[in-house]
Amino acid sequence: SLSLGPRLVMLRKMIQIDLFVFFRLLIVFMCIHGVVSQILLQPFHQLDSDVVEMLVWRPWLHVWLTPFRYLEGDCEGLVVVPPPEQAPTWRMPNVTQPTCPAETSDACEGHWYLYISLSFYLICVRFGLLTVLFAMFNDTYQRVRGESREIWMYQRYKLIVDLDRRDPLPPPLVVFHYIYKLGRHMCWCIKCRIVTKVRVTYGEKSHSNLDMADGGKDVVDSPEIDEERYSFWKSCAHSYNCQERKKAVQEGNQMTQAEVYEQVSEDLSRLDVRVLRRHERLHDRVVKVEKMMQESMLTLETIKHLLMKKESGEVEGVQTTQTGAVLHIAARQSPYFGTKKKRFPVFDKYVPWKVLFVEYDPPRYSAPMEHFSEWFRQFADEVDPSSQKPAPVWNEVVGYKMTIWHEGEGGDREEQEEVMELDRRSWIEDKNTGVGIRYNITSEGIPQNPMGRTGLRGKGALFRWGPNHSMLAICTRWKHAVDPATGDEQEEFLLVEGKRVLEFLSYKEPDFQEWAIPGAMTAGLESKYSVMQKAFCTKALGKQPSVVDRHMDESKVKQLFEVYTVDQPADPSTERDDPIETFSAAMIYRGYVDDPRNTDNAWVETEAWHFHYESGESFQEEEMVTAGSRWQEVSRHVKLFASHASVIQEAAARLNAYF
Question: 309: burial class by Cβ within 10 Å (0-12, 13-18, 19+)?
Fold first, then answer.
């Protein structure tokens, strides 16, 4: 059969070839181990049949068992002491010491050598040679399996040929078959001789094979044809006509079948088109239903977030110690900030990268260079980071020189070579170690948002790949109570639920038309404190800073903000558990920001500083009106750009104020 035949061939080759090679190798290793063990156990044993027997028997026994009685000191039958009257020979030296390597004997030096020899022998035989045997068996199996059909056909051919050549009767009955064949041959010979003699007698000539090409009849030139010959040619013409008719009918049937096939193909094509259209309409409906379900689920999640924030009194924002928010929400809002680009829907459970999301295929968007101001284009990353010169170094601070243009006094541009310190490290700190994390780099060679998926690839409206650092300056003061009759401010501070109410200085962002905290992105040309002080003066006060220092440090910026302090006594009517000085400054947050501009490969990180004027401040009202800034009350209902409201909440929590 097709399955049994090749398996028998496999078995034959495994026994004749593979096992033969295996036993040859086994005999070699058995001889090596037998000689070594005999030398180490009985070095002074005489050369007789017992030695030859042990050379073969001991290795063969060690293949199946692992006897350790020789190694543990059981020297029974191994001590050989030659007779004293016998002269020493090379086969039996004149020694009287025991030859078993027991611990108490003097020949125990070979004890550990035997351990090594036995271990090497067992490893080679039980593991090495058996593995080789299995490999040879597998090779034979694969080789015969690939040729199984050819082997089966060859075996079948041999069987058919053998049956064809075999006699029909078994011995000794085959004698009758031979007699029958001999008689048949003799009858055929006699018949041929009789026919030949008759034809010669009546003058008929014999015809060869070539003469029978016209049907065995002689064609004569006379117009008269006998009835027998006429019937023969009539039958030939009839046969020819029948064959031609059959051919014509077959061709007609073929043409009819081809026409039917074409008609059926056209009908099927029209049917396929209708089915395809219905399938497309059904697919569109399914896609619409899926989109509606996703939008409904996203809406329900948004409602859940709002209810949770309403119950807990928190605001939407960054992950802080006060709010404890884990998932970014604003960074998943669709459409993307300032565009009509829709984000890929991402539910709360799929935000972390460690959660498998096979269907996640977000669109890609990176704002062109024209999106940024002419000044910021000098520091913005390329849309394709692989073409950027010099190449970005992720998770590191790199300093290099570049040509920067500045506007002169007459409006002319002046190009200068500046030293730029580009910080691409993350400001997000690990909760356990307090050390900044290192964000991952994707297979495309770009950073990956450490806070999870946002539904959009690229760097979006941000000017750099990876972390985009920003500085925020929060200036607060206590709000005074207002006389309801006259509308004038009183000296007492406003109290709500037993806590004083804060006011913070804000300005209206012209690009977004939303109120925001004064701040700016760091480009690397100046220190982050210089950027913060310059952004506060230009955006909140509408003027250039009086002190220009590109390398400002923390103590210097505190001094500049302390200048606006008004020395007035604090309200004595309110007692505080933690007394605060006239002016205080502290960094209240440093890390990730839930910004609507965030993407999977670019995100905003901020460092927020809180400057509180306990006894009042001296900001000029005219300057604030010119800049479009104002004081706003700190409350949970305040509406600010991005996640600035959460930073305000941190400032209120620092002073134990009402929120």
Answer: middle
Q: What does the block give as tokens for 281?
A: 């309409």
Q: What are phi and psi of 7, to 5 degrees?
A: -70, -35
Structural contact between residues 617 and 631, judged by C-beta atoms closer than 8 angstroms: no
d(CA 203, CA 214): 21
DSSP annotation of 429: B
Scan for tokens 């950073």, then name that residue: 447
CB 505 within 8 A of CB 561: no
pLDDT tens, residue by residue, 197-209: 666 665 544 444 4
pTM for the whole thing?
A: 0.55
Q: Cβ contacts of residue 41 below 8 Å, gap of 6+?
A: 70, 78, 99, 100, 101, 110, 114
How far, in Å, are 47, 538, 584, 603 from residue 519 at the CA level? 101, 10, 19, 16
Q: Which amino acid is at 544?
A: Q
- Judged against a pLDDT cut of 80, whether residue 324 lies above it is answered with no
Other C-beta atoms closer than 10 Å to the C-beta of 444 total: 10
- Tabulate helix, strand, coil % of the chain (nearest 5): 45, 15, 40
**500 close to 657: Cβ distance less than 8 angstroms:** yes
β pairing state of 364-366 and 457-460? parallel
Element (H, E) at 495: strand 495-496
Do the Cβ atoms of 541 and 629 come closer than 8 Å? yes
Q: Are 34 and 55 in contact (CB under 8 A)?
A: yes
> How does DSSP classify residue 397?
E
Here the tokens at position 378 are: 């000098």
Tokens 């065995």 found at: 216
Output the CA angle 159-164-166, nearest 5 degrees. 90
Residue 562 CA to residue 253 CA, distance in Å, equals 106
Listed residue (472, 540, 476) closest to 508, CA to CA:
540
- Residue 315 near residue 309, CB atoms below 8 Å: yes
Nearest to 652 by CA among 382, 314, 349, 417: 314
Other Cβ atoms within 10 Å of 260 Cβ, number: 10
Whether the CB-CB separation of 554 and 529 falls below 8 Å is answered with yes
Rounded Cα gap, residues 501 and 252, in angstroms = 102
**pLDDT tens per residue across span 483-535:** 887 878 788 888 888 899 999 999 988 877 889 999 999 988 889 999 999 99
Angle subtended by helix axes 130-146 and 148-165, to nearest 10: 60
Contact 475, 517 (CB under 8 A): no
For residue 111, the surrounding DSSP H or E stretch is helix 111-122
